[in-house]
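ARCHIVE CARD
SHELF: 3
SLOT: left
DATA:
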Amino acid sequence: MTDTGKYHFFRYGGLNILLDVPTGAVHLLDDTAAKVLPAFVQDRDRDSLAELVPAQELPAAQRAWDQLQDLVDRGLFLGPEPVFARRPGGGELKAMCLHVAHDCDLRCRYCFASAGSFGGSRSLMDAETARAAVDFLLSSAAAVYELDFFGGEPLLNLDVVEATAAYARERAAALGKRINLTLTTNAYSLSEDARRRLLDLDLDIVLSHDGREAVHNAMRPTAGGGESYSQVTRNILALAPLLGERYYVRGTYTAHNLDFVEDIRHWLDLGLKRLSMEPVVAPPWAAMALKEEDLPRLRSQYWQLAELCLQQPFTFFHFIIDWERGQCGARRAAGCGAGVEYVAVAPGGDIYPCHQFVGQRRWRMGTVFVGITEPALREEFLHVGIADKSRCRQCWARYHCGGGCHANAWWANSDLRQPYALGCELLKIRTEAALYVKVRQALNQYSCEGDVHGQA
């Protein structure tokens, strides 16, 4: 594996894969080109090949050199760093995480939200506050908006969810704008009535589940300490088939299930096909926390997952790479839009940069009734893209990451500009695996699912 700020080269499964960092172009090298690459990127002269390879290999090496040079000439390798003058969407607010419930019917052991209360009293958002939040969101100059009903557990406040969804769509239509709705639920209270009501709302749904029964029950007990797997699983299996592609099952792996691919296999055995598995972020002293010494095993897991993805059709969220349309350039550079394009709103109407900062007074930006009263906070988040982070500027994965999660950086290092190191390593591991899957797809050797539509 070789990487610099300009390119990244790795070999897996008999393939030599070269990523051009500035453009995102991916090239598949034969073994000769892979041998030539180190000399080429060191600005050696083409004539120096005679000193580097046996005479019988020289013609092939020269052809490989010329092909690498052709990539340079076409701007697909070792090109200049892109410059993005604008933030994604011009820096306009376009996404909101609406905390309709600071209460929960589960007590997940890794929950960053203090088991749903976010460190405060348990409460539900009222309809007036929810409408004010929608008005605040739609007051920006964006044309397309995202609204996520969140908690705690939003099903505990389903009446307000329904009323707010109707209001949001009505107001957006009146303004000539479009709004997309999502709801994130632990599925414990996903009764038949709740399922019917959610289907009527016609929104995307994220369903929380941790995989195997023992793993799920260990991490996601009920408020009374009982097991939740049976009820949650039954509810998810009743709803997911009715949602088509409008759902994800999302899990969290910890130090207690470093073999998390087995949890993904369990989902597949249940017939679930749209999946996301996230690493826990926990204090280093916590028994569930991931550690640097876990990285080799986790790397092996992601490669196992890549091979699994090539064996049967399913969508894994972190393997989605859209080669056909590409990613917004400004989004590649700015990463997370927290505090600028994206905010979270607590039940009382307080505005925070994102859902992971909710309840922390230091990060309160204002209220939906008044607006942003702490513009300095927004300004702070305007300047935490990859250009502002010294570690990111030379990282080969920077345009697949955008600088990482700001909240994780803060909780790990008390510095928005200092990324969470372990998270960075995991991002790079799974990005390699994602690139490998996409290359295999492009070679038409498999019919696996790794992009949005599952097309090779």
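SLOT: right
DATA:
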Amino acid sequence: MSDMEFLTKDKLTIVGAAGMIGSNMAQTAAMMHLTPNICLYDVYLPGLEGVAEELRHCGFEGLNITFTDSVEEAFSGAKYIVSSGGAPRKEGMTREDLLKGNASIAAELGDNIKRYCPDCRHVVIIFNPADITGLVTLIHSGLKPTQVSTLAALDSIRLQSELAKHFGLLQSKVTNCRTYGGHGEQMAVFASTAKVDGTPLTKLIGTDKLSEESWQEIKQRVIKGGANIIKLRGRSSFQSPSYVAIEMIAGAMGGEVFTKPVGCYVNNDRFQHVMMAMETRLDKEGIHIAKVEGNEDEMAALQKSYEHLIKMRDNVIEMGVIPPVAEWSKLNPNL
């Protein structure tokens, strides 16, 4: 394959590339022919070189893989960044347990973007708690709110998976699954949007096909989907976040539009100054937010999720990682 067949020639930097998520993202990006120019960045140089060697051994044609432990080299000229560069979650931990350390990492990431690649077009944040790390990155980076997204779409896909398993269907037969709000145990799982082989899910809940009790169990499995992977595999999930994150950055590069809900900066008449999953479309122009619609109980669950995120945001403000909301514009004039 020649570089003329790639989606773009722009530089894509994978942060945390020596880890399992980062290395899988690099391979997925290469397999999807997004760009010939992929830069791998990590502080752990031997592991980083190992990833680069393995990618070379795949024999991808036209691919210019570079790797470095230099922030300046990795970020300079980067037009797209995907970062998994935080501490992973371990068994027994919630995403929120990672708050302080990973929020500080996100602040440094944002500062590096502002310093070395202020004309970066899009950043996808994976490391948890993603609602907060994405928000911190945005504030420190100086980028526009439309240019920073987080991996909340994984929750909607987990809902699709659980419903498909319950009904014994191909996953593609379950459509328009949606979770909104936080990417954590306070997420709002919606039923009113989904269809199962063309039938609205709401018409199936409470029947012999899906009892109310079974639906509540499915919601809990979605909420704890990441924790279940840790329990089963002994490590935090890496295949699904890697693939979904690269699908997202592909949309930002001008590939297939990404239509699952992503975590994004929200400041409207209902939700103010947070990063949370909304109804979105991600394309070459960035994130486009649409109105979330649900029944009374679903909207109440979304409000509860929002209030939880506000508390987490305020905790990070108290830590000094980000300034009070009224001062955000001093760091980022786009806010």
